Amino acid sequence: VHPNVSQGCQGGCATCSDYNGCLSCKPRLFFVLERIGMKQIGVCLSSCPSGYYGTRYPDINKCAKCKADCDTCFTRNFCTKCKSGFYLYSGKCLEKCPDGLEANNHTMECTSIVHCETSEWSPWSPCMKKGKTCGFKRGNEVRVREIVQHPSARGNPCPATTESRKCTVQRKRCQKEGKGKKNREEKRKKSNKDESKETRQESKGRAARRQNREQRENNNKTQPKKRKAPNKEQDLAPVDTAH
């Protein structure tokens, strides 16, 4: 290795070599060796690449390689992400998760097993048969509950969310909805018809009275006035001839 003076160095190098690249870095940059074929070249980076972790020293900041099963790490013994086929647990990469934990293939981590949880049962529904609550003696009543926590892959599965049981009721007849509706409709039509009939009769009565009144008035206008008949008794009264 023949280190040169830092003149002409590029890429954040403080000192460099034509054969080995960077030999030291400028402040706050990390020194890392990159393999190119059979040769290693020194480079200076602002952060360490994947598979490396950074360490800072007074004289140099260096990037060191993670363990073989780590994709990224915080230190050599603490992984933050594992390579394919391994699951992360407490900073370590494992092929199989410990007892009581399960492998999450989405996050590639060992996570706690989650069991199913449900709500309390609802009250029993009214006793019914074929969707009706009347017209029978024996039927069924139902109650339900909801899932509040779905299980993980190895968790206990959810139980049934619906229950049904036989029930007995005092038999009663069902009111025919169509017939009752028809009767109400007929009563309404009859009421409207009676009201219309009364209205027509009142209108006819007022028209007849108005016509009679007009007829009498016309008759009074066309007939001549009768002369007053003489009082026969007054004409036949005896004449006083005493004088």
From TrEMBL:
Give the R-spondin Fu-CRD domain ranges.
Answer: 11-110
Species assigned in the record = Cinclus mexicanus (American dipper)
Q: How does it assemble?
A: Interacts with the extracellular domain of FZD8 and LRP6. It however does not form a ternary complex with FZD8 and LRP6. Interacts with WNT1. Binds heparin. Interacts with LGR4, LGR5 and LGR6.
Protein family (similarity comment): Belongs to the R-spondin family.
Which Pfam family name is an example for this entry?
TSP1_spondin
Q: What is this protein called?
A: R-spondin-3
Basic and acidic residues compositional bias: what residue ranges? 175-219
Where is the region Disordered? 169-243
**MF terms (GO), sorted A to Z:** heparin binding; signaling receptor binding
InterPro entries per the record?
Answer: Furin_repeat (IPR006212), Growth_fac_rcpt_cys_sf (IPR009030), R-spondin (IPR051514), Rspo_Fu-CRD_dom (IPR043601), TSP1_rpt (IPR000884), TSP1_rpt_sf (IPR036383), TSP1_spondin_dom (IPR044004)
- GO cellular component: a single term: extracellular region
What keywords sit in the KW lines?
Disulfide bond, Glycoprotein, Heparin-binding, Repeat, Secreted, Sensory transduction, Signal, Wnt signaling pathway
Provide the GO biological process annotations.
positive regulation of non-canonical Wnt signaling pathway; Wnt signaling pathway
Q: Where is the Spondin-like TSP1 domain?
A: 116-171
Protein's job: Activator of the canonical Wnt signaling pathway by acting as a ligand for LGR4-6 receptors, which acts as a key regulator of angiogenesis. Upon binding to LGR4-6 (LGR4, LGR5 or LGR6), LGR4-6 associate with phosphorylated LRP6 and frizzled receptors that are activated by extracellular Wnt receptors, triggering the canonical Wnt signaling pathway to increase expression of target genes. Also regulates the canonical Wnt/beta-catenin-dependent pathway and non-canonical Wnt signaling by acting as an inhibitor of ZNRF3, an important regulator of the Wnt signaling pathway.
Where found? Answer: Secreted
